[in-house]
Amino acid sequence: xxxxxxxxxxxxxxxxxxxxxxxxxxxxxxxxxxxxxxLELTAANAFDLIITDFNLGDGEGTELIRKxxxxxxxxxxxxxxxxxxxxxxxxxxxxxxxxxxxGKPFNSEELISTVSALLA
Length: 120
What we know:
The chain is of the alpha/beta class. It has helices spanning about 10-25, 35-45, 60-70, 85-95, 110-120, and strands spanning about 5-10, 30, 50-55, 55, 60, 75-80, 100-105. The chain has one domain (about 5-120): Rossmann fold (3-Layer(aba) Sandwich). The strands form two sheets. The protein has a five-stranded parallel β-sheet with strand order 2-1-3-6-7, sandwiched between helices. The protein starts with a strand and ends with a helix.
C-alpha cells in the first residue's frame, strides 16, 4: 500500500510541484492550501508524513504539527520555509519535534531522499 503524504502550502505552484514529484514516486498525496484545510483533512484521514510550509495564509505549519503531535507524538513531519533563516528553521524544527526542514529554494532530490528515509 502506498505511503500517504499530506502536503500543506498556500502557494498553488508549490502544491503542483509537490504533487508531481511525490505522485510520480508512488506516494498517495493529499493537498491542503491552508491550516484550516489541513486540520480538516487530518481529522478525517491518517497520514504517514506531513510536509508543511511554515507560513500559511491562516496560520503556521508548526501549529498543525503541534496539534497532530498532541494526538500522536510519533507524527512525522518536514517543515519548509522561505522566510526563516537556516538557524531559525533548525531551531523551530527542533522545538516542535520536526524530523527535517528545508529552506526555499530547496533541492527536490534531497527532499525526496529525506521523505523516503523518514518513511523507511
